[in-house]
């Protein structure tokens, strides 16, 4: 169950990162609400996951899920570059997260 909490925490990190961008510097109320609630929920899920998962592994996987999802969201929603070097780096993040799942 800890890995499910960790996955939820990572997905919620993507939500609050999107909210941060959509808030346009904390000038739009609903994205601010999404950011605050997403952050609280993400940390809550991370805390539950860290009851069983080692801190280093849990934190790295959480950040990896958030970084991967946020990078892909930026490409899909905001037209950020999808050049092969960037995609290669995203693939390396995925490899690291998968590797930590199997060793941690």
TrEMBL record:
Localization, per the record, is:
Cell membrane
- Which organism is this protein's natural source? Arenimonas fontis
Q: Name one GO molecular function term.
A: transmembrane transporter activity
Q: Does the keyword ATP-binding apply?
A: no
Q: Does the keyword 4Fe-4S apply?
A: no
Q: Which biological process annotations from GO are given for this protein?
A: xenobiotic detoxification by transmembrane export across the plasma membrane
TM annotation in the entry:
27-47, 59-78, 84-103
- Signal peptide range equals none
Taxonomy of origin reads:
Bacteria, Pseudomonadati, Pseudomonadota, Gammaproteobacteria, Lysobacterales
Q: Name one GO cellular component term.
A: plasma membrane
Kindly give the membrane topology term recorded for this protein.
Answer: Multi-pass membrane protein
Family annotation (InterPro entries): EmrE-like (IPR037185), Small_drug/metabolite_transptr (IPR000390), Small_multidrug_res (IPR045324)
- Which keywords fit this entry according to its UniProt record? Cell membrane, Membrane, Transmembrane, Transmembrane helix, Transport
Q: What is this protein called?
A: Guanidinium exporter
Give the record's family classification: Belongs to the drug/metabolite transporter (DMT) superfamily. Small multidrug resistance (SMR) (TC 2.A.7.1) family. Gdx/SugE subfamily.
């Amino acid at each position: 169950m800890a890995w499910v909490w960790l996955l939820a925490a990572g997905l919620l990190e993507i939500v609050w990162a999107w909210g941060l961008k959509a808030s346009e510097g904390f000038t739009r109320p609903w994205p601010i609400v999404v950011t605050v609630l997403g952050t609280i929920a993400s940390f809550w899920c991370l805390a539950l996951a860290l009851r069983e998962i080692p801190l280093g592994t849990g934190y790295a996987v959480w950040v990896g899920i958030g970084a991967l999802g946020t990078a892909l969201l930026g490409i899909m929603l905001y037209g950020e570059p999808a050049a092969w070097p960037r995609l290669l780096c995203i693939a390396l993040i995925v490899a690291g997260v998968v590797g930590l799942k199997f060793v941690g």
